[in-house]
Design goal:
about 160 residues, binds ligand DLZ, four-stranded parallel β-sheet, alpha/beta, two-stranded antiparallel ribbon
């Protein structure tokens, strides 16, 4: 698993399920777009490398991470979509906004997965500054988007 290796892009690629006919939904927050775009790129690459077909990946955007839960629900409720990946980047600011958004999206995404009985993956960076985000969006700690996509694939093989 990625965390054991201390790099979000390093994961075991053996023993993954066949995802050639699986349909994925990805919901991406536009806030901190430079980072979330890189997360999306990582997630897409990981899914395609693992055998997903590009026309089986539905990508939707929402304004900020707070809206990821509802966006994930709109995707999860589509019967043909088997797993949803939510991508966002919440950076700690001077106010308590960070805590409220991070908690809300973690809870919301969990609820959507349980309600629709499908993997809904938390691909959200919750960090203190932009440098930490860059390190985890294709930088020295890998890419959270890769890890989120890998987790979705693993869950489909449960
Ligand atoms: C408002 C806000 C702030 C301050 N910070 C972030 C952030 O770091 N990451 C993120 O994805 N979204 C942020 N937002 C936007 C909220 O998620 C949400 O879109 C707005 O509060 C809705 O008005």
């Amino acid at each position: 698993m990625a965390t054991a290796l201390k790099n979000l892009s390093q994961y075991r690629s053996d023993n993954l399920p066949d995802i050639n006919h699986k349909r994925f939904g990805i919901v991406v927050a536009e806030w901190n777009e430079g980072i979330t775009g890189a997360l999306l790129q990582g997630a897409m690459q990981t899914l395609l490398k693992a055998g997903a077909r590009e026309d089986n990946i539905v990508v939707k955007t929402v304004p900020g991470s707070f809206e990821l839960s509802l966006g994930a629900q709109w995707l999860a409720q589509q019967p043909t979509i088997e797993a949803v990946i939510a991508l966002g980047c919440i950076i700690q600011g001077e106010t308590r906004h960070f805590d409220f958004i991070a908690q809300a999206v973690a809870d919301g995404i969990t609820q959507v997965g349980l309600k629709y009985n499908k993997p809904v993956i938390f691909g959200v960076l919750t960090i203190q500054n932009l440098a930490q985000a860059e390190d985890r969006a294709g930088g020295k700690h890998g890419n959270k988007g890769d890890e989120a996509a890998y987790t979705a694939i693993r869950m489909l093989g449960f």
